[in-house]
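If you are new to this repository, start here. Below is one unmodified record pulled from the training split, so you can see the exact layout before writing a loader.
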Amino acid sequence: MPTVARRPRQKPDLRREIVTAARAMFAEEGFEAVTMRKLAARIDYSPTAIYLHFKDKHALLEAVCEETFARLAARLERLAARPQPPLQFLRDGLRLYVQFGLQHPSDYTLTFTMGSGQAEPDPDGFAASAGNRAFDVLRVALRRGIEAGDLPAMDVDMAAQGLWASTHGLVALFIAHPHFPWVSRKKLTEHLIDTMIAGLRQA
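And here is the target side for that same chain:
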């Protein structure tokens, strides 16, 4: 059968189809094992047509990660729009991050732990990314706590990165080692969040 360069598809629909297939293949086979030709075969399309949308599989992985970050950012931004005390906002944001990772373990692993062999994106590119949108909610939560007097003055970027690193570690361990004899995941998550916020208040 000839490839589906003959079956016309709307460009946004095709791009969506490519990203969806790539997400599944990266999760199933690993980044290195996936090729543009194998991806084209999966969606019954020509490799040439895929290259019209993505220059290489690194660009594809970036698109998959950006989509995951956008979903996370949207959930965090909805949380940020609710009126609530600053430290409750911070706690809820950290809980939401853990919940998102555990609800979407394949996407989380792909986005946060699967290396592509590429260098980190340039800072200007990150500033405009959905990943930065998600991370900025954490910075906003810290600034609100400082302004309300619930937290002492601190380097917000350093504190935010420390919180993210610690919370990411918990999520990554939960996903990578599901059969470890964890105590209640909810209690462990709450313990970690309580410990981190107590540490910030004593900084």
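Two things worth knowing about this chain: The domain at 1-54 is CATH 1.10.10.60 (Arc Repressor Mutant, subunit A). Residues 57-80 form the longest helix (24 residues).
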